[in-house]
Amino acid sequence: MFFNFLLCAGILVTLYFLMVMPELKVNPKSSKFDGWFYAHRGLHDNHTEAPENSLAAFSLAVDRHYGIELDVQLTKDGVPVIFHDYNLVRACQVNRKISELTLEELSKFRLFESQESIPTFEQVLSLIDGKVPLIIELKIPWDAGPLCEKVSKILQNYQGLYCIESFNPFGLTWYKKHNPEVVRGQLSTDFVKEKIEGSRVQYFILKHLLTNFLTRPNFIAYQHNYRKGLSLTLCRKLYRIKTAAWTIQSQEELEENKGIFDWLIFENFIPK
């Protein structure tokens, strides 16, 4: 009986190690992202004329020589735009979803009462023009194909350094199949502690990075408050994968995470 228990336990532990195993072959582009601080949604302040995910915020980040993390999703008419939330309520005081409106309809709204409108992905790429590296978060509610296809096509003509990341493993699987040369990252956090509504089973799988065996990410982007999690620790220390911390909110937090994460994504302060 005890032997059977040990055997079962050994099998489960082995399966766990295999499931959280990321891509072991190092993507040569990964190291090019080292040595930068990444401005979360641009160098923004939502009480100024440079709110999050705006052209003004991205321009400021480029001027200060910071890398940029940004969010991309599709409009109703299939245009990739830069916007974080699925709903416009927080940023534009309108209870509509990005996916429910065309680009023309979205152009009427302003971000956080500024003069800035919601930019398209192409507009942002034209502004940045390869001057700083990009971490591009793919906002995928479910089906990854439409957004990944549009984003990938636009990026074919972009000469700058970029990687993609997503909470949705299907986005990484799409890139693994169609563009394996692109550096891809799995986003995660402790969804339950963050009180994010959704399936407990799904969030357990994502929190513990149990889809890595399918997606084979080149890096893990994790909320730094939960940096001691077992799966993240295994990926970082055993499998030696690159890791990104989001979102650092102070110089003190930055110092705490410098020796743990390879890439640091910051917000609401200027790193020293």
Structure report:
By secondary structure, the chain is α/β, with parallel strands linked by helices. The protein has one domain (37-266): TIM Barrel (Alpha-Beta Barrel), CATH 3.20.20. It contains eleven helices and nine strands. It has helices at residues 2-19, 55-63, 89-92, 103-106, 121-128, 145-155, 169-178, 200-207, 212-215, 230-238, 251-257, and strands at 37-40, 67-74, 80-82, 134-138, 162-166, 184-188, 219-223, 242-248, 263-266. Strands 1-2-4-5-6-7-8-9 form an eight-stranded parallel beta barrel, surrounded by five helices. Helix 2 (55-63) packs parallel to helix 5 (121-128). The longest helix has 18 residues, at 2-19. It is globular and about 70 Å long.
Q: What structural class do you assign from the helix and strand content?
A: alpha/beta
Termini distance? 59 Å
- Sheet-strand content, in percent, reads 15-25%
- Average pLDDT number: 96
Query: What is the second-level CATH architecture?
Result: Alpha-Beta Barrel
Question: Which key terms come to mind for this protein?
Answer:
alpha/beta, eight-stranded parallel β-barrel, 272 residues, 34% helix, TIM Barrel
Topology:
Elements: H1 2-19, E1 37-40, H2 55-63, E2 67-74, E3 80-82, H3 89-92, H4 103-106, H5 121-128, E4 134-138, H6 145-155, E5 162-166, H7 169-178, E6 184-188, H8 200-207, H9 212-215, E7 219-223, H10 230-238, E8 242-248, H11 251-257, E9 263-266
Parallel strand pairs: 1-2, 1-9, 2-4, 4-5, 5-6, 6-7, 7-8, 8-9
Antiparallel strand pairs: 2-3
